[in-house]
Design goal:
By secondary structure, this protein is mainly α. The chain has one domain. The longest helix has 40 residues. The N terminus is likely disordered.
Length: 407
Amino acid sequence: MSSSANTKVKTDLPKSKAAALIEILGISAKLGITSFGGPIAHLGYFREEYVVRRKWLDERAYADLVALGQFLPGPASSQVGIGIGVIRGGLLGGLIAWLGFTLPSVIALVVFAYAMQGFGLGEAGWIHGLKLVAVAVVAHAVLGMGRQLAPDRPRATLAIVTAAVCLLWQTVMTQVLLIAAAALLGAWRYRDGNTAEPYRLQIPVSRTAGMFCLMLFAVLLLGLPILRQLSDNLGVAIFDSFYRAGSLVFGGGHVVLPLLEREMVPLGWISKEEFLAGYGAAQAIPGPMFTFASYAGTIAGGLTGGVAATIAIFLPAFLLIVGALPFWNVLRTHPRMQGALAGMNAAVVGILLAALYDPIWTTAVLSHEDFAVVAVLFGMLVFWKLPALYVVAVGAVMGAILQLFTG
């Protein structure tokens, strides 16, 4: 298996800023088209592309960024992608990384809102094949991150305990509480500085800019409901509802969707049937599930509503990750914080391990044939070291073939 831990991180940028941004856009768009399986699977795809293949950051820095995304409300995988874009190309790089990863599913769901409600896409064999790809990708990520981030008995134990608690105690706040507990345990266990010095990330965002983003996040969260009360404009109401959803939800798309249902259906913005149709479509396409907002906003207020809802639900993620990164980068190099991060990273491995089983394995591997496909795809990643794009294509074809022969 490829390992970034034993390879120097590539800090060299393309010769021009434009070339760097085009590179970020191309890679993130490829991920936006091929990353099926939900937020945990996305983190596996990101690791394979940005850590193993591109070496833009090392295993530990990536895990630190994932831990930060797990702490913050909103879509964790999108925040990690934005963070990598910021590290690589500044604020504009973060914006372009978000656009590349998000735009394919936004377009698909807006089109679906207008024209695709009766196609039964979720039953297609190739869709099931893509779910099997997600199993292989996440298993590959767990294996690689486990070797690097839980290499000794204490951290491996912490990862296993975290996975067990995640599966036994399935609440919205479980992951956040487990990471916090792992941080305290790691700070105590490695309080003498026994962990290696982390690679220092170059964050092209000042603390002043970071503080401004955090303040703007709070001002919008408190001010939009007031503006909504003072205005009868549907666009303002949509923006407020989706911004609040993106600001206050931990746990990703599967958690935010029920919240949006309670917010939208009683107001008559969307019917129960339309909501369920969009829910199915959001799970059948690649990219972040938060792009369900594009579908729901389009149903409620046309294309303008779709654009407003999309911007509103992702804006908190952008403001929070950009606001936190300058301070996070300083903290993660502090001797005491290194111990806390060692514990947090082991907990992240445990969270990924739990998610590998539920919901990824339980919703994808339904037969002996499914397991056989997963084994082939896993071998393609781990032993043959093929790019994820090839694995996605093979998985889709094998899923379609399985449907033909098994009905």
